[in-house]
Amino acid sequence: MVKRLEPILPGSYLGILGGGQLGRMFTQAAQAMGYKVCVLDPSADSPAGSIAEQFIQADYIDSAALKKMANLCKSVSTEFENVPAQALDELEALGVFVAPRSNGVSIAQDRVAEKKFLATWKEETNIGPAPYCVIEHDADIALIAADLFPGILKTARMGYDGKGQITVHESSALVAAWAELGKVPCVLEKRMELDFEVSVLVVRGYDDEVVAYPVSQNIHRDGILFTSTVPAPSLKSGQEKKMIEAAKALIRKIDYVGVLCVEFFVLKNGDVVVNEIAPRPHNSGHYTMNACVTSQFEQQVRSMARLPLGDTRLLAPVSMLNLLGDLWFDGAIDKVIEPAWNKVLAHPDTKLHLYGKSDPRMGRKMGHINCLGESLNQARQNCAAVAAELG
Ligand code: ADP
Ligand code: MG
Prior knowledge:
Elements: E1 13-17, H1 21-32, E2 36-41, E3 54-57, H2 63-72, E4 75-78, H3 85-93, E5 97-98, H4 102-108, H5 111-125, E6 132-135, H6 138-142, E7 151-155, E8 165-168, H7 174-180, E9 186-190, E10 194-204, E11 210-212, E12 216-221, E13 224-230, H8 239-253, E14 258-267, E15 272-278, H9 288-291, H10 296-304, E16 318-324, H11 341-345, E17 350-354, E18 365-372, H12 376-390
Parallel strand pairs: 1-2, 1-4, 2-3, 4-5
Antiparallel strand pairs: 6-9, 7-8, 7-9, 10-11, 10-12, 10-14, 12-13, 13-16, 14-15, 16-18, 17-18
Helix pairs in contact: 1-10, 3-4
Bound molecules: adenosine-5'-diphosphate and magnesium ion.
Magnesium ion is lined by residues 263, 276.
């Protein structure tokens, strides 16, 4: 039996480690519900720091800063998987309710630990990771089986949006690829024949209540998410249930409280492979902000405030379009333009979200648009039209 703990009610401070766009959307959701928010981020100017009631500019392992946060906040969560486990442990030791705790975040922030964990999980769910091996020493390279090629070499830590990854076609190219990544610990993963990619958001409360959102189908461009569409157009019957059950089993297995995203690959032969997990709300879950009863950010608030979780029901088909900094450059890299928001806003069934970032850069996530429709086709057409208008 889980001991019932009092919920943390509106009016209280909630804390968030990291001040990026995920922290900003969390802050907006919390404030809409009447909470106050304290953001901790190392940089002076951050999307969440600029709108929170309290902003602490400090390193994540600055003990004085963590103490200040603990004095203010009854509960703290993270928007950033690379926040040191030590920071979460320190906050917990100061009596703060930390959700998720450091164990779940540690698994997700290290691909070696993550793959190992996902591989053991396969026995229960029948969904495992792609074949892989770990490279930590020069000697590891000689031992690699030929059938892992072509493969993708990924740094164990700090990779995101396809960064820190090199495709390696044969074993002879591996030495140079590993040197290019700085000989840091890596995993080499077999490159799979993907049919399509999907993700599942699951949320768990402190009392073991678990809810899942409908599966989202994701298209990436240059390793960065481009669109997410729900309901997932290519899913075959039975696949959605299997993935949701697997994601629910996984969140319980980690004993994780909060919002967790599980990315899957569906292969050309119909097999399902688990790619990675993210210990926070996820870009592929931004559709929930306008298309579901409860957004993923409200769920983050609910889980950390020990409230009952919200309804995950999809209210309308949706296609989310990511807005990258590239849109601000019309061909010439030295000339910044403002995208044609008037055209986007002329669509009555699109929802524009901009993250308040002042300097657009190529590949930088600046915002997203949720394109709704009465039917899946309408949502997708709406999204294609908006994408074409933005150029
Ligand atoms: P990131 O942390 O950057 O999101 P991922 O491991 O999810 O890293 O890889 C980014 C993208 O690269 C995936 O969404 C997928 O499109 C492609 N990819 C990654 N691993 C594989 C693989 N083993 N086989 C085929 N494609 C892959
Ligand atoms: Mg990924």
